[in-house]
Predict the structure.
Amino acid sequence: MLGMIMAIIDSTIVNVALDTMAGNLGTSIDEISWVATAYILATVVVMPLNGFLTALFGRKLYYAASIAVFTASSFLCGTAHSLGELIFFRVIQGIGGGALQPTAQSILFESYPPQRRGQAMAIFGIGAMFGPAVGPTLGGYIVDNYNWPLIFLINLPIGIIALLMTMAYVPDPSYIKRAKVAHLDWLGLAAMTAGLASLQYVLERGQHDDWFNSDTIITLLIVAVVGLTVFIWRQLTVEHPLVDLRVFRNRIFAAGNVLAIVLGFGLFGTALILPLFFQTLLRFDAFQTGLALLPGALATAVAMPFAGRITDKVDPRIPILFGMVLFALSTWWMGSLNQNAGYWDVFWPRTWQGFSLAFIFVPLSTAIMGSVSRAETPNASGIYNLVRQLGGSFGIAVLTTILSREQTSVYQTLSSGVTLHSPAVQQNLESTTHALMAQGHTFFEAQRLALLELSNTVFTNALAISYDDLFRFTATVFFFCLPLVLVLRKSRSAKAGSHALALD
């Protein structure tokens, strides 16, 4: 768990430190953003290789080596003196971090007996769901009170402890068949690397570069389509595939991964949108934003053990449906807030959001991982974590694009109705002007400030409407995906003595 938590927190902790890092390294915000992008690009390339690399090196050695690489590169990131050095070390860190999450999930899932695997996924979920909420808050605290290199250097003691515990306690299962380097599919590896890295770049930078108005985005989208097409063809035709995509013939695994995209959409998408909502509309500072996010993270952590116990006892469709409906309702509730909302107005919908995620993540992860054999677990875990990560990137890309477009559209609509010929506008300007003149401003200064205040009011209202529409769009996505849950059915196999999943 320690290695996985480090990797997940490091994917988000740098976001709040980018301004400070840009100032210290003498770069622009656009250039320093590559510190975050480089890590994610490396992570998504390594994740699907989890099954192959586990078989190549053995689980213990692979996991220990990944922790060592991640920890060493964390030290190098903290001592970097230029942007180029920092980006390079972040790529190395991403290579180590990309292995930690799927491998940790495999270790936890296989260490528990079948009848308690829901509890195993609850433990895994505490790190997987808690990390994205804790990362920005922790990063903000470190940047405000210390220096930005500390966001990387704090990994050192955690990484050393995780490495020692891995070498002492993590087993190396005998049923994992060893792969041979001679069977390495170099064409498949090149196609996968180019395809996934290009796709992740498009999702990360598409909105920033104005999507299809950018030649870079168009070119990389073509590379992504061609690369992933070649990769899928190779994995389905070669004798020793890097990533065994035949696991998608298991329709439970396939349906579960579609739901994982929705889970990533909700988790990572709202994890980005909520801080923006709190800071740009509600005017929360960094500390207040952290406090506003905290109830959801705590609710997730508290709910995880309960979700694990329930998953081990009932049809997994029941908690998944409950969690998705509750998340949709609480997110719809967020869509009723405006610029006058305070901390306690966001406390309860945020709490229920966090509570609901536990009842989606735990049974869904248990269902997906339980639908494959133990020997397929490393490969399945790598694919599942990659799909959830891409779902999150897709959610962020979609939501940020909608927010930008919606804000422009709503502002134009609202401002078109604000004219000096409107009696309401005239009355507002007159009352504001008189109030400002009473404060000592001249008539012309008061008029200018009154017009500026009116413009700000229109902008704020447009921003509030845009965020409300965004929250309700997210809720609608969850409502529309509810029928997918009904595809799953739990059955018991007496021979295996474990939970199995089959199609209705």
In short: The mean pLDDT is 80. The domain at 252-424+457-504 is CATH 1.20.1250.20 (Growth Hormone; Chain: A;).
